[in-house]
Every structure is written in structure tokens, then in C-alpha cells.
Amino acid sequence: MADQADKTSQQHETLVVRHVAIVMDGNGRWAKKRKLPRHAGHKAGVNAVRRTVEACVELGIRTLTLFAFSSENWGRPREEIQKLMALFVEALNKQVPELNEQGVRLTIIGDREQLPADLVRQIEESEAMTADNDRLNLVVAVAYGGRWDIVNACKCLARQVADGELSVEDLDESHLTAQMQLAGLGDPDLFIRTGGASRISNFLLWNLAYTELYFSESLWPDFEQKELEAMVGSFHERERRYGKTSEQVSGDHA
Ligand code: FPP
User: How many other C-beta atoms lie within 10 A of the C-beta of residue 149?
Assistant: First the structure.
């Protein structure tokens, strides 16, 4: 009896959305449709970030990870990159005090060595200001690539092996997980990409192994709370099997 209760509670546990990861695509097309410069789309994208953070707090989601700038985005026109970096500084400067009041903890992941000094300074201040909050972990990926993340983790482990702290035979998945940028935050339960494309585009490759994937036609600035709620609702109806049979997961085999 207790066993059955345990199984039921485990099953419910696996169906709760704790961590949502989003590729925020479609800002440029949103602006183009309105005959506005691309930057206007990115600015509207910041408003969608604010709305989504609030929705996640309301839905009781613990972690929201957003892809704001990829390793590949360095290939965009210089002017767009400069304006985006300035927008990140401005958004952090303006929004973080309010996020702090809401109990949001901010963490930036990605290769900081590639970022301009004023942005790194703003990131450090924002992270320090919100470090003690625990209502929602807001993780923003900037200058981030999933392959970079894996290579970076491998380098850390290679150093530990070279220093004699770790043996190659002992190496397992948990060592790599502990060195990834999302270490300690858990893998995303739900991945969402807006903007109509059905690709992961080098986001969180290691951590998305068992994540449920959702692709939305909405352009990011149009993404609304009700769409997020619908995705979270339909996640609850999906069965997560982690490679097991349906009977094993539902406990019918007992
Ligand atoms: C992709 O749309 C979006 C980006 C490269 C930038 C995303 C940044 C924001 C939404 C601002 C977020 C700010 C903070 C502080 C988190 P796209 O430009 O590729 O759109 P397109 O495919 O329509 O051209």
C-alpha cells in the first residue's frame, strides 16, 4: 500500500513543471511586420521577458532559462550586436531592482570572456543583488552555446584528471552534469521555441536529453501567458518514460 502511494507520488512528481527553457525567436520578424528596425523587435522582446517571468512566478515554476544571445549570434551585423549588448545592460539596470523585490534570483550563463566590460559589471552587480532570492531562478544565456558548454565542462574535468583529483575510470555522467552551466538547477522539464522553427539551435544540448519539446508559431514579442499556461497544462498530460515502458511508469506492473 505504502509502495503504491510512493509510486503515485513519484509519478506526480515527474509531471510537475519545475524548469522551463525558452528559445526566444522571432523579434526581427515581429519588427519587420510593423516596418520597424530589428532593434524595436528586441525591445519588445524585453517586455515579453517581463510578462513571462511574472507568469512563471504565478505558475509556481522554479527555474526559467532564456536563450538571449547564442555563440552563433556573434555573426550578426556589428550594429545589431552593439545595440543588443546595450539593451542587455539597460534591461538589467532597469528591471533587476523590481525582479529583486519579486524574489527572483538572476544567473547569467555563457562565455563572459566574450562580453563587453560594462555588461559583465552589470551582470555581476545584478547577480550579487539577487543572490539570496529563492522564488524563481531566472537564468539568462548570453554568448552561450550548448557545444561550448560541453567542451568547457570537459576541459574542467580534464584538468581534474591531470591534477590527479579524478581518475578516468571513475568519470561518469554526474561529473559532467556538475560542470555544466546549469549545475545545481536541474534539467528543463519543458523546452519552448517561439518563431515557428523546430530546432534546438545549440541550446542546452546536455540538459535537454529528456525534456519535452514545444514549438510555437508565435513571434517572441507576441508570446503570452495563456500560451505558456496551455503548454504547462498539456505537459501534465504527457507521460515521461525516461526509456522505461508505459506499464513501469504507471506502476501497472506491480
Ligand atoms: C532572436 O530573434 C532573438 C535574439 C537574438 C535576441 C533575444 C533578446 C531578447 C528577447 C531581449 C531579452 C533581454 C533580456 C535582458 C533577457 P531574431 O532576431 O532571430 O528574430 P528573427 O528570427 O525574426 O529574425
Answer: 25
Pocket test for ligand 1, best of 23, 25, 194, 201 (most atoms within 8 A of CB): 25
Q: Is the dihedral of CA 23, 68, 18, 149 positive or negative?
A: positive
- The sheet carrying 104-109 orders its strands as 104-109, 136-144, 63-70, 19-23, 190-193, 212-215
Ligand 1, atom 16: closest residue by C-alpha: 68
Q: Which residues are catalytic?
A: 25, 73
Superfamily of domain 18-143+183-252 in CATH is Decaprenyl diphosphate synthase-like (3.40.1180.10)
Q: Is 141 in the pocket of ligand 1 (CB under 6 A)?
A: no
Give the predicted TM-score (pTM) of the model.
0.91
Average pLDDT over all residues of the chain:
92
- Enclosing H/E stretch for 20: strand 19-23
Give yes or no for residue 28 CB within 6 A of ligand 1.
Answer: yes
> Which of 22, 27, 50, 142 maximizes ligand 1 atoms within 8 Å of its Cβ, making it the mutation to test the pocket?
27
Whole-angstrom Cα distance, residue 146 to residue 164? 27
| C-alpha–C-alpha distance, residues 63 and 104, integer Å | 10
Q: Which of ligand 1's atoms lies nearest the C-alpha of 197?
A: 22
pLDDT tens digit sequence for 104-143: 999 999 999 999 999 999 999 999 999 999 999 999 999 9
- Distance from the CA of 70 to the center of ligand 1, in angstroms? 10
- Residue ranges per domain, the chain? 18-143+183-252
Query: What cell was used for 27?
Result: 523579434
